[in-house]
Queue: 3 jobs
Job 1
Amino acid sequence: MKKEDPRIKRTRMLIQTAFLKLLETKAYEEITVQDILDVAEVNRSTFYKHYLNKEKLIGQIIGQLKETIILPLLEQRFSIPTKAFALVAVPIISEHRSVFRLLWQVDTRRISLKKDFFNLVKNKYISVSRHKFDRTSAELEFQGTLFAYISVGMFEHIIQGTETIDPDIEHQNIEDVLSFFNMG
């Protein structure tokens, strides 16, 4: 595999950082390529060497988060106990909460980290559960949807918060809520 030129990597990082900085004060729809150029202090041809448009830029940022954080965590979610997963996931998500929070608010017809996350979780649940439970496709679809809504809610709770979250307490909170579903 060919190693990426450090200058290219640095330029992409400059552009991505500028874009995220703009998301702190402007809605995605209001951000222009010119805004990104001004904050990143790069020229238009440099931007277009790396990205076709701002949609491709945010797509790459979201893609990197999926590849490096979301998908690996999703794999672990179904291979280790819930409490162990909370101990792994909460610190990782908390560490990247500011970036997740910024990208979570972007919701267009083509770009939505929240919808992507929901669908990834739902589909992974269905895929794993298909081999674990003897259920119809409709039942698995319902279970996957329910699991995804709960997961999205927990994820939002972590990224929208400002204080440090104790994974043990989060796990107990989940257990408390789920106990209402088990009431006879």
Job 2
Amino acid sequence: MFPWLDGTFKKLSNRIAADKLHHALLIQGPSGLGKSNFALELAQLLLCKARKGDEVCGFCQSCLLNAANNHPDLHVVESDKQIGVDQIRDAIKTLVSSAHMSGAKVLIIYHAHTMTESSANALLKTLEEPTANTFLLLTTDKPERILPTIRSRCEKLALPLPDLDTTIAWVKTQYDAEIDINFAKLFSARPLALFAELQEEQSFTYETYSTGLESLLQGKTSATQLAMDWQDNADKVLKWTQYWARQQCTEQLSETLWQLNLQATKVIRQLRNPGVNKTLVLTALLDKLALVKAA
């Protein structure tokens, strides 16, 4: 278990041992925090036949099946876009039948906010009248997009956020290279997101971005020139600009910074259109960014 989530996991394991765990948990937190891993490890603990405190035994039949990703009483629902009603109905059918291993049955719904209204409504009866020893684990980074009727029937579990030192310490155990402290600040509460970004940096690094950003703010380079240099890495530039603007907003209230974040979101949508002129839309965004110093 990730160190920043270990305390919460131990508390839940104690409730499992005391048979006091709520049948439906809504596991909340920002992306890159570790919600999916948390839900999966909790499910494996529920299914283990010989668990010891907050640890699975690793040797019982349930643990062996989980290790092979083939446990008949663990069901997972997820989707890259939307979770359809048929996915939920199929999952419910498996839950209402008897457990194959004569133990718990667990349904994990990753990114529960992507359920359609029909999907959510199909899940309601199961949440209201769960079968014996059945557990539903829903994860989300956008709880406000989940129907209130779903939220009200779940116990809300907001996972703790790690501080910057904890984030960097964990990433250093996974990433054998120097970590830019300013880059890490953009992901201070999302260690997995920081790790993923570091792995994807390759030739266009955050150092390249931050150096160009500083030159722009100091008037040493133009928005047009940067846009031309960065157009092949437009997705990263937009993402990092959003992170940078949000980080700045936590340190100072600024209408310009807020508008910059909104425009980055708008440009991200524009870049999804085929044939869009990346240099043009990036220039407009960087022109807005250059106003930050003036503000």
Job 3
Amino acid sequence: MSKKAFLCALFCVLSSFLVAAGEARAAILTARESALLQRINAVRSQHLLPRLAVDRTLVRAARAHSRAMLQQDVFAHGDFAGRMRAHGVQFPRLAENLAWGTGSFATARWMVTSWLASPGHRANLLDPRLRAIGIGAPVGIFSGYPGTAMVTTDFGG
């Protein structure tokens, strides 16, 4: 095998690993979570801010909190710092947005628009120091409403 053919084959193999790694990162989010990420990053792009990167530790923390809120029928941040420590989150700067909704109020567009209308939530979405995100958006029964999307977005920077 010539050196050129070998290098071409090596490039193809390495490229396939890079594509697989990118797909694995994308696959850690559900369709609902991915829609939220796309919407959030679109808003950040409109404000000339960098896109948020998905962080697995933040995803685990966000999903656990959303599941707990559904199971306990509560909607609250609770001990945010304690939850982050318990999940091994290492970012020096952290923030969190919560939302819940059913039907058209459970869409990424509605939730992100609602956050943008709230000064504190808007500040979290548009904070240039925050560079990573974890999203949890399980669906269940909340306050008697079946089909509720319970959303936690945890940010790190």
